[in-house]
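tool_call: predict_structure(chain=1)
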Amino acid sequence: MSTVWYEGNRLSDAEGQAFSRRSHLYGDGLFETMRVHRGKICFWESHYFRLMSSMRILRMEIPSSWSPDELEAELRSCLPSGSGDYRLRLSVWRSGGMGYAPSTKAVEHAMHVSELDGLGYPHPLKPLKVDVFQEHKKSPGLLSSLKSSQSALYILAAQFAVEQGLDDVILLGQDNRILETSRGNLFVLKGTQLTTAPLSAGALRGVIREQVLRLAPGLGLEVQEESLSPFALLDADEIWMSNAIDGLSTVTHYRKSTYVATQAERMQNALRASSLF
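tool_result:
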């Protein structure tokens, strides 16, 4: 048994329990961020199967009650009554105490619910001013595609964006090719060619990324999964960022270059009308 001291004060066993969770001690957990619109979890099926896949990769035990319908019902029971828009964050972490070697595969979980604006989903495109973050690079591999509790890279990137007066920054892989941003997946459009980094390069397995790739051919866009050089940004017609909360946002300024959002508007409308929503 261990005792926990918080800023010089010894905590009771119950108070210290939160500081003894493996998610806090080791980042031994993951999370799923979802948009709720009019009481409905957007793209629930995609979120659910990404969660199940991620838990298996991390060798976590999936609770027997977590069928798609049962888990959705539990999440929706945490929402306020009414038809507002909310951010719903499901955090899952492994049970057990200290030590790298887990004593169990069982998990615990928590939900965070926060109210969003009433602009609908997906809302009008957010304009972004971005630059490249070069202090730390993201490594390729299966773990890099997960929404892991180990978020140091994203925190440092987001902090850098604030310090530089930017809306977001672009993350690079170890090969100095573009992967994503601190807030979501990145798409580069040149003509009708829509390019995004492959998962094998370390790109996040984003739910909206999946929808964009599915919907693009119907809009006359050719999809390519390839890691591009940052120089490709200077030659792009449009640059998009995607995540579950905003749908698409569009880069309007990168260094001295500016961009339009004609095809991004069409894709945002396609997301809005998608049968998966």
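agent: The CA atoms of residues 39 and 81 lie 8 Å apart. Proceeding to next step.
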